[in-house]
């Protein structure tokens, strides 16, 4: 059930008052600078009490914002005007007082503010959010998305101009994930808008991602509007998947891999397939439908494997060609190597090993380990579909890790295709972090 935390009253903002009191800035103390998550000093709002709360950047710390990157880190902030509560809209100004953006403030995050709008004339209110969400829906319609699937990411956070907001659609059910203080603040408004624009049978909230903790937000999930049907199913490329919206991972399903799963299906014919980190059987079902000779699927979650097997049945696929293992992939791959098992197509789609660049080194070792073992398990001419959904691992670094793994495995491999998330997960050019999913299809000599 949903639990709501006491809400801080919203601070409606209006158009800028201009940078009136910029000379009276409160400097941050040394002690504050050394604190683990330093927060900028605040100053009481002087003058016009109805002036919007504001955030002033340090001199020379406006460059990333001028390139339209929507995050403002605490280290870039000179001071806070007024006393905004987390989630309130603040006017962001450079050191000279020039307006830069409207942003959602979060006192409890290293990312002090996330930009809603670059336009000073914008009013951040229900109409603003309605237009943004309607824009995201329109963009997807104009790209013809939804023809292959009744599951779709309707809102992809920063890349759709709505930092921290994820909305996934599974047939008539919408799942909303609020990842930061801005959308948290506008939670009810956002649900109202989604109800008005999409008329879903249910809006379910899954605000239980790891990132919430970093934002100082409580974990929360439950029905927000309507009622959750007993069965939620999604069809993609003609395959039906049961989705556990309430207890499944993320918002219940990994929509981002839709087109990559379809590609795997077309290349699986007559091959022995190994699908590591299979979750509810995504790649496995496509491989079975694509007439793979055999499909071994491994995941550490028994619940996910149960759903995967139910999905095979749901689609009337030949279960006799499918084998399921509940195991740790790192160990399972070693066992398969020791048993001298060989495959013609291997999928490695692990969870996020490196949420940020700080985890990149440790994550690199993990990626190298599984990919090295993957290369060793492939027959000559075999295909490796390998992925990273780590924001902290760049495309270049990922390719280098895979090259190192092939070298150590003693195989020559070619990249035959580079893969990304499906088009309902667009990437804003000024926000490269949006391109979290990268994949390589490799063919070993
Ligand atoms: N390929 C899937 C999504 C994979 S998500 C799809 O298309 O739907 C990552 C999966 O890895 C999750 O199901 C999680 O349970 C599993 N997992 C995480 N760590 C694991 C480990 N060490 N060994 C096996 N499975 C693991």
Automatic annotation (TrEMBL):
- Name the EC number(s): 2.1.1.191
Q: Does the keyword Cytoplasm apply?
A: yes
Q: Where is the composition biased (Low complexity)?
A: 32-46
Chain intervals for the UniProt region annotation (Disordered): 1-55
**InterPro entries tied to this protein:** PUA, PUA-like_sf, PUA_sf, RlmI-like_PUA, SAM-dep_methyl-trfase, SAM-dependent_MTases_sf
> Where is coiled-coil annotated?
none
The record's SMART domains line, in alphabetical order, gives: PUA
Per the record, GO CC terms?
A: cytoplasm
**What family does this belong to?**
Belongs to the methyltransferase superfamily. RlmI family.
Q: What is this protein called?
A: Ribosomal RNA large subunit methyltransferase I
**Organism this protein belongs to:** mine drainage metagenome
């Amino acid at each position: 059930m949903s639990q709501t935390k006491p809400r801080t009253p919203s601070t409606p903002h209006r158009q800028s008052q201009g940078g009136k009191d910029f000379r009276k800035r409160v400097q941050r103390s040394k002690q504050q600078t050394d604190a683990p998550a330093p927060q900028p000093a605040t100053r009481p709002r002087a003058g016009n009490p109805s002036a919007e709360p504001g955030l002033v950047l340090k001199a020379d710390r406006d460059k990333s914002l001028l390139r339209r990157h929507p995050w403002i880190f605490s280290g870039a902030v000179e001071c806070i005007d007024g006393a905004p509560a987390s989630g309130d809209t603040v006017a962001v100004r450079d050191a000279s007082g020039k307006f830069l953006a409207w942003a959602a403030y979060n006192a409890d995050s290293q990312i002090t503010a996330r930009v809603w709008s670059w336009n000073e004339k914008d009013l951040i209110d229900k109409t603003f959010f309605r237009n943004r969400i309607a824009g995201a829906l329109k963009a997807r319609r104009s790209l013809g998305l939804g023809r292959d699937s009744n599951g779709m990411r309707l809102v992809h956070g920063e890349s759709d101009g709505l930092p921290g907001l994820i909305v996934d659609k599974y047939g008539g059910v919408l799942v909303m994930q609020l990842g930061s203080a801005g959308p948290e603040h506008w939670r009810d408004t956002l649900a109202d808008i989604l109800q008005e624009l999409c008329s879903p049978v249910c809006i379910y909230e899954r605000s239980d991602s790891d990132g919430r903790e970093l934002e100082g937000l409580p974990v929360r999930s439950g029905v927000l509007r309507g009622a959750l049907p007993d069965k939620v199913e999604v069809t993609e490329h003609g395959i039906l998947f049961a989705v556990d919206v309430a207890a499944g991972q993320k918002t219940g399903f990994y929509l981002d891999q839709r087109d990559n799963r379809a590609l795997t299906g077309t290349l699986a014919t007559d091959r022995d397939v190994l699908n590591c980190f299979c979750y509810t059987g995504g790649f496995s079902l496509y491989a079975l439908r694509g007439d793979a000779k055999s499909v071994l699927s491994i995941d550490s979650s028994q619940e996910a494997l149960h759903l995967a097997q139910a999905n095979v049945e749901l689609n009337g696929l030949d279960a006799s060609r499918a084998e399921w293992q509940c195991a740790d992939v790192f160990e399972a791959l070693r066992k398969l190597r020791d048993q001298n098992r060989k495959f013609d197509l291997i999928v490695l789609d692990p969870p996020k090993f490196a949420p940020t660049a700080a985890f990149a080194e440790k994550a690199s070792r993990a990626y190298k380990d599984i990919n090295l073992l993957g290369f060793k398990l492939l027959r000559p001419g075999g295909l490796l579909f390998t992925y990273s959904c780590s924001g902290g691992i760049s495309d270049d670094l990922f390719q280098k890790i895979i090259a190192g793994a092939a070298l150590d495995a003693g195989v020559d491999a070619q990249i035959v295709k580079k893969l990304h998330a499906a088009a309902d997960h667009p990437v804003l050019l000024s926000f490269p972090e949006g391109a979290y999913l990268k994949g390589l299809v490799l063919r070993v000599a």
